[in-house]
Amino acid sequence: MHPALQAETLYIQHFRKKDEARPLSYYLEQMQGYTALGKALKMAPDAVIDEVKKSNLRGRGGAGFPTGMKWGFIPKQSPKPKYVVCNADESEPGTFKDRDIMRYTPHLLIEGMIIAGHAIGSKIGYIYIRGEYTREAKLLDQAIAEAYSKGYLGKNILGSGHDFDLTVHRGAGAYICGEETALLNSLEGKRGEPRVKPPFPAQAGAFSGPTVVNNVETLANVPFIVNRGGEWFSSLGKVERSGGTRLISVSGHVKKPGVYELPAGAVTIRELIYDICGGITDDKKLKAVIPGGSSAPVLTPDEIDVVYDIEPLMKIGTMMGSAALMVVSEDYCAVKLIKRITKFYAHESCGQCTPCREGCKWMEDILHRIEDGHGREQDLALLLDIADNINGKTLCALGDAAAGPVSSFVRKFKGEFEAHIRGKKCPNV
Amino acid sequence: MSKCVIDGREVNFTPGQNMIEVAKQAGVEIPFFCYHPGLTIVAQCRMCAVEVGMPGKDGNVQMMPKLQTACSTAVAEGMVIKTKTEKVLKNQKSVMEFLLINHPLDCPICDKSGECDLQDNSYKHGDAYMRYTEERRTYVDLDMGPVIKKNMNRCIHCTRCIRFGAEVAGVREMVAIQRGNNTEITTIDGRALETDYAGNYADICPTGSLTLKGFRFRKRAWFLKKAESVCEGCSKGCNIELQQDANVVYRTLPRTNLEVNKHWICDEGRFHFETIHDADRVLSPAVQGATGLDMAAWTDAVAKAQGALKSGKVTVLVGSDLSQEEAQDLKAFLAKQAPQAPVFHFGTPGVKTASDDAAADALLKRKSKTANLHGLEKLGYKPFDSLPAGAEQVLVFRAGRAVLPDLSKAKTVVGVGVFLKQEAQAFQAVLPGLTWAEKSGTFVNHDGREQKFQRSILPQGQSKALSESLMLLANQGTGTGAA
User: CB within 8 A of A152, min separation 6: which ones?
Assistant: First the structure.
């Protein structure tokens, strides 16, 4: 057994109990439920934020922004109501960790949100959950009702004088609504399109009020931090500037796919695939790894000795994103894979800004042609140029999410692309 | 006054001013599509992206790694803006390419050609070579009502029309449906447009996607000669531009005046120019004969008018659509020629005096449907109720817009100015005059703002300026200057 698997975990032992872990009674008895809330309500809001800053908790949704700093941006005084919004859209392909938190330990999220509300001075919270998570939305509603009945939510929580109301809002299935400003638009009942920034949500977010938008796992970590201290949480991480454990969604051609919990930065990708997930299906050779959800630039087998965490991955030109590791074996066609990924982004582009609306579909069309054996020699240079024209030039990060994978696939699997073009068909068939 | 640096030059700006405007003032053009000074900022087209940097604490300028859209970036003291770097130019080229890959490039048959932002920017910033070989996106268009013709294939999704409807016209009628590459800009459920300001959709559209039904295929934009004018549709005094070729006015466009009409005009004002070329307009002197009102010589018509004027029983009605200059001339003329005659102004039923005039909607329209009601009152013209008893002879001066009151009780009516044949059927004589497009002058709007308008076309037919007609009325037969 890999030593990383023996490290302390926060979630996974409860996930294993499945439905048994869900009720409030379990949460209270087995997980010190709502003790952090009691403790936090006795602390000054700034002290809570300081504790989160100390914890080195970084956003678990994809960008990895330090959570404490994000909370610190919320103005103390505001004429408009402040909001805590949980981004439960979990729409990055390959990511399915937040689902387990909402399924098995929903009260962690609820408690985390109430504490966040206390820290930034907000009385209203929303959980924006992706439309496909119908079951999880129901479970959250049940858990919220439990919390209301015990006085953890509502007016005068635990006699502290602090109020907090929490509502689940279901999305309608658009990937873009995982982008925080598009999420806020959708929450307000508008078309799910990202907003121009600035203003950032911390100044003008939901309904123009100061808003903090955090991922499910990010908020679920907060009760642990309050209970056991920021320094303890930070010490769980094995690399600098990254605290806590990470829930990792592993999918693709591995023997044991699923959600894993490991201390942040405890393993390399190679260890993760071969020692923890049991290696490649049918003991085939590894062809590619997409380390952080489908928007992360791809890695080849000679690049997987990198530590699996935010900064090390950034250094080699890719990203940890939402910690969704997708493993691809030698059997799968790289062109087909990137075409499928690009098709997804072209389909999910909101259509507001020019490079993303026009460019993603263009790339998809070209990739489609190459896959079908109608590619041309100049297509590869064209793909790289289109990707470059999208990357960093769009209104939100969706453009980058579509362009990064394309340019990395074309660069790293050039031979396979050329084989398609010259052979006028897929060589893998 | 704050200072920033654009392309190496120090430029003054007022905090809060848009970067595109600051650059424009300094003579630096930053190209754009979705930005419009009268609408909110969305930063969607990405054409205006520039390099932006700020001096750090050590005084060294730190350029931001990514391009920033000029429309949405607040200009700050000491900011360094670069609009001509390789990175900026490459982005402009790429945005042009992205916008054109699905554009039909049908400029030869497109009405916007010649005044099209997409076309202009393509020449200036695009590439003549096209790398796109895939199938182009096409749409099926639904009818949008009588004003606007839509061609979605030409659309570049700038959303100006959506924002105009929601933010200016106050009707959320244009929307985006579908998403991504399939995004379509359309009316809700494909309905006809509701707003009375629909013509502005065509003005702000940066391509030929929304064009005016009444203008398309009638005249190429580059043939049109422009005159700065003021709308005579109501007392708002919206600033407009009349565009003509070969003495025919083809369209009216708004001119920006932030204190009056901002960037907009209403459809009523926009299409009012059509009356200039009304086939029914009396364009030659006419006299009542055996078969009704018929063409005549100027001398005959003038003689009839003189008869009425000198009858001693004349009542003079003056349309509040006359320019300030005309009204002044007329006042001086009447003081001399018919000092006893009662003189009234008329214009809009229900709006007798300037104090009856008020806003007719939330945007521009006013209740007074003539342009110079306030000017005429300033000159001392009295409001009209009904014809005084015994008013047998009536002389009507009018520029075409004022609504004629009931004149059935008058024995003799002579019209001077602009009339339709139908309206003047029972008149004894008509001396044809000029519409506002055929003359220069001044209108005084509801705020008391005096606004000059320029002549756009030459007098139509045999019509004469009011000053000329007055001269004939004063002098014909006196040996001092007959026609």
Answer: A34, A37, A110, A111, A114, A158
Is A174 an interface residue toward B (CB < 8 Å)?
yes
Query: In this structure, are residues A309 and A320 in contact, taking their beta carbons and an 8 Å threshold?
Result: yes
* pLDDT band at B480; cut points 50, 70, 90: low
Instruction: Please say whether the beta carbons of B52 and B79 come within 8 A.
Output: yes
Burial A125-143 (b: 16+ CB within 10 A, else e): bbbbbbebbeebbebbeeb
Of B66, B95, B181, Cβ closest to residue A361: B181
Over residues B259-280, the mean pLDDT reads 97
Question: For residues B458 and B440, is the Cβ–Cβ distance under 8 A?
Answer: no
Q: How far apart are CA B110 and CA B202, in angstroms?
A: 13
The shortest C-alpha distance from A356 to chain B (Å) reads: 8
Q: Has residue A176 got a pLDDT over 90? A: yes
Task: For residue B67, give the chain A residue with the closest CA.
Answer: A393
Chain A residue whose CA is closest to B103: A358
Say which range, A19-33, A173-187, A406-420, B389-403, has the weakest mean pLDDT.
B389-403
- The rounded distance, in Å, linking the Cα atoms of A156 and A43 is 16
* Cβ atoms of A375 and A363 closer than 8 Å: no
Q: Collect all residues with Cβ–Cβ distance below 8 Å to B18 and sequence separation of at least 6.
A: B35, B37, B41, B70, B71, B75
For residue A266, CA distances in Å to A7, A105, A248, A274, A372 come to 9, 24, 12, 14, 42
Contacts of B344 (CB under 8 A, 6+ apart): B315, B316, B317, B318, B381, B382, B383, B384, B385
Does residue B483 have a pLDDT over 50? no
Residue A46 to residue A54: CA distance in whole angstroms:
12
The answer to ipTM > 0.90 is yes
Strand partners, B152: none
E strand or H helix at A125: strand A124-129
* Residue from B42, B46, B92, B103 whose CB has the most chain A CBs within 10 Å, to mutate: B46
pLDDT tens-digit series, residues B36-45: 999 999 999 9
- Residues of chain A in contact with residue B176, where contact means CB-CB under 8 angstroms, are 191, 351
Structural element, H or E, at residue A328 = strand A324-329
Number of Cα atoms under 13 Å in the Cβ half of residue A176:
29
Cβ of A358 within 8 Å of Cβ of B99? The answer is: yes
Q: Which of A174, A358, A365 sits opposite B98 (nearest CB)?
A: A358
Contact residues, A window 365-424, toward B, CB-based 8 Å cutoff: 365-366, 369, 382, 389, 392-395
Place of tokens 């689940």: A168
CB contacts of A359 in chain B (<8 Å) are 98
Report the alpha-carbon distance of residue A134 to residue B352 in Å, rounded.
66
Q: How far apart are CA B45 and CA B98, in angstroms?
A: 10
What is the Cα Rg of chain A in Å?
22
Instruction: Give A 239-268 residues with CB within 8 A of chain B.
Output: none
Q: Which one-letter DSSP state was computed for residue B237?
A: -
Spell out a b/e string for B447-474, using b for 16 or more CB atoms within 10 Å of the CB, else e.
Answer: eeeebebbbbbebbeebbbbebbbbbbb
pLDDT tens string B422-447: 999 999 999 999 999 999 999 999 99
pLDDT at A240: 85
Are B217 and B185 a contacting pair, CB within 8 Å?
no
Closest CA to A99 of A269, A215, A197, A192: A215
Contact between chains at A354 and B156 (C-beta distance less than 8 A)? yes
Amino acid at B67: L
d(Cα A330, Cα A280) in Å, to the nearest integer? 10
Residues B292-324: tens digit of each pLDDT? 999 999 999 999 999 999 888 899 999 999 999
Q: DSSP letter at B129?
A: S
